[in-house]
Design a protein that fits this description.
Length: 497
């Protein structure tokens, strides 16, 4: 059951948001029209805080999002801003939107591209989350015209044309510099490609009852330290290297950099000891490069099983630089048969592309799979269609696998078999570099080694990984992520202890 900390970072579907509004209004004292008044006022307030008085056009649609626009326009007019409303046809207005339109005391014009000629700022209140089909015809042409002019746009709830549940672009979508949404973010605010069109996102409170989420029971959340920091395994005064766990990592014979990066990351995340198993011909490379890592010769399956059977080994990582081939598949299966918490990455996933059921039959709840889109597609194939909502795809994959699935990307999704999902939407483009995924796998392994549950380990690892990259900026290489772990952990320890 999610904690209140989780609910404060809930990512709602459009249907969940509508239900939350209905539940809140049923309890009173605020009506839906009151919520609309507060939402429109929040949009106007955001405009006045970020821009100096200028000529504003409010694009108002026929639904409740349009009503928010009328309220925002009136608030700006009362504050002395020159503002006009460009309205779509009003014959399908909702009662509350019609009421807001009647309260508007300024000029209303038919919404045509010529209105953009004499304005400095546009508020997009056309559709919000109410859009169900692609923008076409005159509306699509209007949006394209607006985007081409590069006029700053503030979106009320959502840039029009973005699917609020999936982040998909419905034909064409408004490119906003700022989005003001209400109560909680929606899933489309953090999923690509829609997330790139939202600009800065402000979440405004409109007076809704916070505890309605206890009844709505959302399953998706945005990654934040609130979700896992209280459980983070910071060392205590009585801690020693054995109490902090012992990680076991398989190192391949050719792509040795992958396992080395993962080993260093596991160490930096706090694993008390790390053992790296490697074939004889690769041992010198690992031994020279990893002074504080134990390197064990492991050419045969029985040697690997002996390491797995050691009760002191707390968690396992296999896959980075492992290589492919039937003999190595047995190494992965043995890892899973040990029932130790483990991370399967890269080659450990690809090796089962032709026989995914063989893998699924032995996975357990303490496993974390970390595929990128290509590996995900090869492993789950037609069972999880590639054109689906990314959150739903990860959730379905986690249910099929019976373990945690971390589907990588700029909008990484971490899903568990019980349906819970966390979106890590803060990953910067600098992470698109060789070895960054190996570091992430090592970071998660380091947390598993110290006893953090698999879901929390994956969620925390993803947040830390992207945060370090964001702090470093351009020029990042995988080694920089490893080097950045201590400083970030130091900062977090001052909050978590």
């Amino acid at each position: 059951m999610p904690t209140p900390e989780y609910y404060s970072h809930a990512l709602l579907t459009c249907a969940e948001m509508r239900r939350a509004e209905a539940l809140s209004c049923a309890r009173g004292p605020l009506s839906f029209y009151d919520l609309m008044q507060n939402a429109g006022a929040a949009v106007a307030d955001a405009v006045m805080k970020k821009w100096k008085p200028c000529r504003v056009l409010v694009m108002s649609g026929p639904g409740n999002n349009g009503g928010d626009g009328y309220v925002a326009a009136e608030a700006l007019r009362c504050a002395g801003w020159p503002v006009i409303v460009g309205a779509m046809t009003s014959n399908s207005q909702t009662p509350d939107a019609a009421k807001a339109a009647q309260a508007w005391q300024g000029e209303t014009h038919s919404l045509i591209p010529a209105l953009f000629d004499n304005v400095d700022l546009v508020i997009d209140a056309l559709f919000g989350t109410g859009l169900q089909r692609p923008l076409t015809g005159e509306v699509a042409a209007l949006v394209k015209n607006l985007n081409a002019r590069k006029i700053p746009v503030i979106a009320a709830d959502f840039p029009s044309g973005v699917d609020g549940d999936t982040g998909r672009i419905l034909g064409v979508a408004v490119e906003a510099q700022l989005t003001v949404t209400f109560f909680r973010k929606k899933r489309g605010h953090v999923l690509l490609p829609g997330a790139t069109l939202c600009g800065e996102i402000i979440v405004a409170e409109t007076g809704m009852h916070q505890d309605v989420l206890d009844e709505v029971k959302p399953l998706t959340f945005e990654n934040h330290t609130d979700l896992w920091l209280s459980q983070f395994p910071f060392p205590q005064p009585e801690s020693h290297k054995y109490s902090r766990g012992h990680a076991l990592i398989y190192g391949g014979p050719v792509m040795t950099g992958a396992a080395r990066l993962a080993a260093r990351a596991a160490q930096r995340m706090g694993a008390g000891l790390v053992t790296l198993a490697a074939p004889e011909n690769a041992m010198p490379l690992y031994a020279v490069a990893l002074e504080s890592v134990i390197v064990r010769q492991t050419d045969r399956l029985d040697q690997w099983r002996a390491l797995l059977n050691d009760p002191k080994k707390s968690a396992v990582l296999i896959g980075p630089g492992m290589g492919l081939g039937e003999p190595l598949k047995a190494f992965v299966l043995s890892t899973l048969e040990s029932r130790k918490p483990c991370v399967l990455d890269a080659d450990a996933l690809t090796i089962f592309a032709d026989a995914p059921d063989e893998l699924f039959s032995v996975l357990h709840q303490d496993c974390v799979l970390t595929p990128h889109e290509g590996e995900f597609s090869r492993l789950f194939g037609e069972r999880v269609k590639s054109n689906g909502d990314k959150i739903e795809r990860a959730q379905k994959a986690a249910k099929i696998a019976g373990c945690i699935v971390l589907l990588k990307g700029a909008d990484t999704v971490i899903a568990s078999p019980d349906g819970f999902a966390v979106v890590n939407g803060s990953a910067p483009p600098w992470l698109a570099t060789a070895g960054s995924g190996d570091v992430l796998a090592g970071m998660i392994t380091g947390l598993l080694t110290q006893g953090l549950p698999s879901f929390e380990a994956a969620v925390a690892g993803a947040w830390l990984h992207s945060r370090i990259a964001a702090l470093f900026g351009p020029g990042l290489i995988a080694e920089d992520i490893v080097a950045g772990i201590p400083a970030l952990l130091k900062t977090l320890s001052s909050k978590g202890n």
